Amino acid sequence: MSSVLLAEDEFLIRAVLVDALGDVGVECIEAATGREAIDVLQSDRPLGAVIVDIGLPDMSGEKVIEAAVQHRPDIPIIRCSGASAPSALSSNIKMHSFPKPYSASELSNFVASLIRKDP
After folding, report:
1. Which of 46, 55, 57, 105 is a good FRET partner for 80, with 20 to 30 A between their CA atoms?
2. Are the C-beta atoms of residues 101 and 16 closer than 8 Å to each other?
3. C-beta neighbour count of 97 within 10 angstroms
4. Do you find a cis peptide bond into 99, omega within 30 degrees of 0?
5. What CATH topology corresponds to 2-117?
């Protein structure tokens, strides 16, 4: 089973996504804060993708994305945001965007398809 890092501070959203991802065979490593997410990114835990909410309580999700690019440059990043503002991140970063609200099943199927494409 492939694992993804899910950086999302809203417990209910995280719980629904964990269930939806589990339904498509993807295990979640949960992070409720940016610091928790960065700790996982800096670890040696295998990851197939990173899902990042931009509105984390301790830092912008964009800081987590920057850490993902630095520590895990080869894994897909999915940026989730309810804000319509464009990302301030470099356009060179390979990133997929999912606007909130999104369907948990759509996002989980998308993540599963990304992970299956990667060797």
Report:
1. 46
2. no
3. 12
4. no
5. Rossmann fold (3.40.50)
77 to 62, 90: CA distances (angstroms): 11, 13
Taking the C-alpha atoms of residue 50 and residue 13, their distance in angstroms, rounded to an integer, is 15
Q: Is the pLDDT reported for residue 2 higher than 80?
A: no
Token pair for 114: 């990304």
Q: Which two tokens stand for residue 65?
A: 């994305």
What does each C-alpha distance from 107 to 6, 13, 18, 82 come to in angstroms? 12, 12, 11, 14
Q: Does residue 100 contact residue 80 with C-beta atoms inside 8 Å?
A: yes
Is the distance from CB of 87 to CB of 79 less than 8 angstroms? yes
pLDDT in tens, 35-79: 999 999 999 999 999 999 998 999 999 999 999 999 999 999 999
Neighbours of 33 (CB within 10 A): 15
Q: How far apart are CA 56 and CA 72, in angstroms?
A: 20
